[in-house]
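To the wet lab folks,

You asked to see what we're planning to order before we commit. Fair enough. Below is the target structure as tokens, and below that is the sequence we designed to fit it. If anything looks off to you, flag it before the synthesis order goes out.
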């Protein structure tokens, strides 16, 4: 069997950023304006603080302005929605991101659904999800978009392939399943109530693991030659797939770190640039 191909999200994200730098410069040259991505963070969860910093750094690398809005832990759902509505109405803001997760007392979905669809560059509004699923014009959930972009870049066939998605979260499992379906894959969504999960996974040509449990998918669950997409990230740089044992069986895989993670941020920044281009009537290319 050939050596498995590494689906290098870090390298692809760097390449995408170089393209985005050119597009952002074009916006600046034509309008004198700088695209802005507003990020709301509620509380001070250490992981969220790190993610927001990484997203801000990516904004700076491509030339767009990160606008960080920090809200106290005790903020209410109404407080967050008021802040989102102010950003919806701000003509200088082109993308809005509410950092997930928010404190438990906040209705996260109500907040997501208050984001203007034209600025929903993280693809979290349920209307965005519906439009994306129906193949209408819409931004897409950032991590699923990153996964599809990565698979296509490496010429992984999707049409007619059997894909198994493990996890059904509204911002990862469900949207990536819909996007794979829209690429004409045959999709099975698995979750905690799925019976005989290892047997279901063994059918898959493509496995997307998004359960948030370290090394949950075992090597003997995957068939020879499958493609492994590990969308999990757990303490110690460990994904949701037992990659060290499963790599030998697969044809391609996303490393952890350096696979899906960089593509999530890349997709977020890309859609912010697209939002600004639409706002200013600039056609890419």
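Sequence we intend to order:
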């Amino acid at each position: 069997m050939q050596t498995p191909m590494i689906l290098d999200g870090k390298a692809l994200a760097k390449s995408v950023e170089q393209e985005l730098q050119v597009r952002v410069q074009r916006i600046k040259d034509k309008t004198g304006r700088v695209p802005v991505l507003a990020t709301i963070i509620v509380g001070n969860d250490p992981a969220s603080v790190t993610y927001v910093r990484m997203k801000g750094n990516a904004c700076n690398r491509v030339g767009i302005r990160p606008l960080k809005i920090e809200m106290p832990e005790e903020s209410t759902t109404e407080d967050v929605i008021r802040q989102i509505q102010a950003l919806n109405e701000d003509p200088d803001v082109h993308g809005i991101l509410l950092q997930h997760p928010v404190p438990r007392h906040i209705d996260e979905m109500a907040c997501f659904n208050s984001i203007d669809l034209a600025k929903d560059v993280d693809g979290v509004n349920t209307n965005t999800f519906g439009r994306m699923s129906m193949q209408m014009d819409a931004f897409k959930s950032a991590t699923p978009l990153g996964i599809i972009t990565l698979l296509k870049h490496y010429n992984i066939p999707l049409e007619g392939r059997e894909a198994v998605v493990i996890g059904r979260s509204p911002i990862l499992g469900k949207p990536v399943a819909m996007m794979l379906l829209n690429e004409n894959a045959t999709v099975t969504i698995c979750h905690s109530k799925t019976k005989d999960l290892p047997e279901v996974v063994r059918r898959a040509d493509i496995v997307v693991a998004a359960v948030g449990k370290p090394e949950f998918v075992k090597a003997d669950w995957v068939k020879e030659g499958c493609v492994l997409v590990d969308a999990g990230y757990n303490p110690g740089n460990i994904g949701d797939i037992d990659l060290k044992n499963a790599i030998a069986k697969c044809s391609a895989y996303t490393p952890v770190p350096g696979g899906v993670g960089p593509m999530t941020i890349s997709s977020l920044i890309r859609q912010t640039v697209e939002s600004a281009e639409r706002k200013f009537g600039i056609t890419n290319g």
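Structural context that might help your review: The chain has a mean pLDDT of 97. The first strand starts at residue 5 and ends at 6.

Thanks,
Computational group
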